[in-house]
Amino acid sequence: MNLNLTKSDKIFLGVISGGYIAVLIYMVVTDYKFQLEGVGQRWIYQLPFGEGPLSRVNPLTIIMTWVVMGLIIFMATRVKVFKIIPGKKQSLLESLLDYVYDLVKDSVTRKEYVRPIFDIAASLFLFILVSNIIGSFPGINAFPTENGGVTFTILADTWYAPTSDLNMNLMLALFVFVMSHVYAIRVKGLKSWVKSFFEPIWWMFPINIIGEIAKPISHALRLFGNIMGGAILVLILGYLVKYFVLPAALWGIFGLFFGAIQALIFTILAIAYISSLIE
Question: What is the pTM (predicted TM-score) of this model?
Fold first, then answer.
């Protein structure tokens, strides 16, 4: 089988391969061992004002969120001119977006809302996909220390994925929750929207409210559990086998394959939640 690789593809593969070889040599020379210290812990910074959960932030989540957005913007600029005969980058992007568009078109019965819902779904899909993908490559991470400081690790863990933070996933799920009810009010009207909480009979109101509250919670926990659980599992396996090749393969599987699946599942659920309220 012949692979027709461009010069940029060869450079990219060469850099990735060279990086893995360099890390492998480093681990052999220094007798590096995977450590389990700080697993599951987060770098939390207490703001100088206020108290409680809202006065604390995870700086790494904020930093990597901006990194992900920067990567998406950079990728968009690489295919800013669409050609009649698409190249590889344009074909990949069109395939992904066409698939998401078909999901929205098949789920949303009101055609005038297909495009705006597609914009939401595609944005969520790309953000979660890129976040999960960067979590498949060894990189820099941060963990709190006992004295209240922070220690940064290099190549002992993957790059920090924003989707491994429950707060980020809750924010995305709440965004979907709010937008689904905004569209429901626009389609049904405020009176009919309020009336829907008392259907099929009035005493179903508490159950309907609980069901709506459960949607964003389950939506967020599903993504968080898969991403965070996969990262911890890979780190533990890496500590047990004490070789770099196996963890690298597992990082690739969890980050690229399962990460893409989780991004798609989150997007499909977002489309389903919105479309179910505007029928």
Answer: 0.75
